[in-house]
Amino acid sequence: MKLLTVSALLCGLFALTAAVEELEDVVKRTSPPFCTESSKLQQRVFIFVDKKLTWAEAESNCVSMGGHLASVHSLATHNLVRRLIKRRANRNSNAWIGGSDQSWESVWQWTDGTCFHYNKWLTGQPNNSGNQDCLQISLNGWEDRRCSCRQPSVCALVLFYPLVR
Ligand SMILES: [Ca+2]
Ligand SMILES: [Ca+2]
After folding, report:
1. Per-residue confidence (pLDDT) for residue 77, from 0 to 100
2. pLDDT (0 to 100) of residue 43
3. Averages of pLDDT over each 10 residues, the chain, 165 residues
4. What is this structure's pTM?
5. How far is the CA of 146 from the centre of ligand 1 (A)?
6. Ligand nearest to the CA of 138
7. I need a labelling partner for 144 at 20 to 30 A (CA). Which of 90, 117, 121, 127 fits?
8. Which residues, 6 or more positions from 33, have their beta carbon under 8 angstroms from its beta carbon?
C-alpha cells in the first residue's frame, strides 16, 4: 500500500523520466570526513532510466530529479536493482550506478557521498581496461566501464530523513 502511494506521488512528479520503483530502507549516519555511512533509517526510491546516457549525463539526470545515481551497499540492494532493471527494461540490461574512480584511480566513491564499503565486482573487475572509471551494474555483478559509453541508468532518491535529536 505504501509503495503504491509513493509510486503514485512520484509518478506525478517524474513522469517524464521514468517509472518509479522499489522502496528500500537504507542508510545514513554522518561520519566524517569523506563519506557518510548507511543505516536503515533512510528510505530511497529507485528509478530506472531507459535512455542511453553517458555516466556523467546519467548522474546529472538523477540530480535534476533531486537524487543521484544509485549507490549499492548490500547484496539485497544489488538484487533489488537488478529486479527493477529486468522488470522495467524487460531484459537484463546493463546500467550505470553511482560509483566511479575518476578522482583517484582504484579509489571508488559513490556520487551520493555514502561510503564505498560493499562491492560486488565480477571476477577480474575492476580492471581499468582502456581507462575505465565508471561503475556498471551487470547481471551478476559489477564492472568498471568507460564513462563515455551510453546506456540506461538507475537513480536513487531519498524519501525520508529521520529526525535527529
Ligand atoms: Ca579506473
Ligand atoms: Ca572493466
Report:
1. 95
2. 84
3. 45 41 50 62 88 98 97 95 94 95 96 94 98 97 98 92 57
4. 0.78
5. 8
6. 2
7. 90
8. none
Grid coordinates given for 90:
524487460
Q: What DSSP string runs through 49-77?
A: EEEEE-HHHHHHHHHHTT-EEPP--SHHH
Alpha carbon of 163 to ligand 1 centroid (Å): 38
Proximal ligand: closest to the CA of 131 = 1
Pick one of 3.40.50.300, 3.10.100.10, 3.40.980.10, 3.90.550.10 as the CATH number of 2-160. 3.10.100.10
Task: Output the pLDDT for position 5.
Answer: 46
Burial of 94 (0-12, 13-18, 19+ CB in 10 A): middle
